[in-house]
Input
Amino acid sequence: MLGETDQPGQIITIERHILEEQSSFPEATGTLTNLLYDIALAGKIIASRTNRAGLTEILGRTGDTNIQGEQVQKLDRFADDTLFRMNDHTGRVALMGSEEHEDILPIPAKYPAGKYVLLYDPLDGSSNIDYNICLGTIFVIYHKITTGRGSLEDCLQKGRRVVAAGYLLYGTSTMLVYSTGRGVNGFTLDPAVGEFLLSHPAIRIPEPPSYYSVNQGNQKYWSRGVQEYTAWLQGQKPGVRGLSARYVGSLVADFHRNLLAGGVFYYPADTRDREKTHGKLRLLYEAIPLSFLAEQAGGRGSDGGQNILDIAPQTLHQRTPLFVGSRALVEQAEAFIQKYG
Ligand code: FBP
Output
């Protein structure tokens, strides 16, 4: 697999990597390759704004509220517009779905509709924008399965049908991590040349794990199973070495750390808000893409009862509890929830 054969220090751009990946799909037409290029370019444009967020009029709110009931940040809107305008005219995508929009986003009639469906969370962790904390963009790609120019049905596909998924992390450096179902590779943007270069080939979640990531401020609203699981992670159970707690409050940042260092991120269902008895995070453009990547790196994603990739989505913005990261830690969560509810 690419990455394992490359000598350390070889300069591999994401374009070359995607092209070499394409060569392992004899039936490939290059459309997915170009769609991944477009997403990488959109990521560079968004990064150019996040990096200067404190200096430009991009901080603060638009005054609008999105379908999630959240205040829309200017940077949210910019990221959302950038991803849509990058993909609405290329003839590669039939329709899109965004965390920021209540309904699916069909391709304007004046443009040809393509064979792929692109769903995205344009700017994850947006509650952290004003505090200069890591942000991310999460995306997932499916084949269009209906005839014509596509419909909601094309967006409500199980994670087992994912063609490609990934995220951009806008942190100390800008990274793009993706998979087409042949392992997970990470690229770092070299601002000097404006290129994403292969920096993390063939990522596998290491054992033993080091971290657990959860908003423990919600603990009293969790089920007994999740409470017992958290105590186990903290080493309060006999014979268990506790893990260290890390929580940024930006899903992509917390997931990325655990992907590279070993650990589990979880956002369980809680009784705090009737709206969120199924958890806070969105199945289609947060839980499925990250669970796909985790599984490709030897880990697992679960809602506490079943693999996230086996859930049949019902609605565009449906929420789900999420436990994702090191396989053994996620399986333990399922065991505690099965035992204690
Ligand atoms: P969005 O910013 O895309 O709405 O994502 C939700 C999110 O910010 C995640 O990034 C993060 O893991 C979680 O919510 C933090 O929630 P909380 O503040 O309740 O811990």
The chain has eight helices and 15 strands. The radius of gyration is 19 Å.
